[in-house]
Amino acid sequence: MKIVKSAASYIVAFTILALFMLPLVWVVLTSFKTRVQVFDNPLKVFFTPTLDNYRAVFASEFMSNMANSFVIAGLSALFSLAVAAPCAFAFSRYPRALPRSDNALFWVLSLRMLPPIAVVVPYYLALRSLGLLDTHLALIVIYSVFNISFAVWLLKGFFDEIPPEIEEAAKVEGWRPLQVFLRVSLPLARSGLVAAGLFCLIQSLNEFLLALLLTSSKAATGPVAISNFQRFFGVDWGQMSAAAVIFMAPPLIFAFLVRNHLVRGMSFGAR
Asked: Is the entire prediction scored with pTM above 0.90?
């Protein structure tokens, strides 16, 4: 009976994995097809691959847009962590300093629940008046506003895991609260910092609506550039798929390298 249950569990897990992997495999295969091969009917599993789509993408403006995405997402993630870490530490260690801290913490998270379409018009008007439309700074600040709230919740779980006795011992040695935070608490919460940073990075890389409406050319990001492969004569599925594969590769590689931290982050710091 146990063997049957184990086999059934593996079958279900494999089926779910296959369903999740099918779109990714489809995109990768399409990136190596010509325009004619993309529309083969019936679908051909075996075909002669071509690198023309990748050559066209590397020769286009997409690479500069991709660079914009990683610069904006990286700086936004760093800024979000710089703000969220001390805020989460304060919620974890000094809950009495802020009346009804639980309600305040929920309010912080509620900022992340706000749909971008609800604030795009105020953002557009404010950025236009400041002359910041189509700039990296505008997207860095806006993405940080959305990411900080989630990072605070995530990091609070990691700070809660740290035994307060360790920090108290450092205070007995004469360390100030800021020194304790920087030299004791932050190093112990490095898994949370990596996980929160990765989530902020991925969220910023995947964002499309705000980047589409608040940029035009100079600060246009990768997702916006990928949508531009829909041209007047139709969608160039081969080049669009190649651009998507190129854009996905760095985050997937980085996520694989820090997968242990990421798993802990998905459990909100639970052991």
From this structure: no
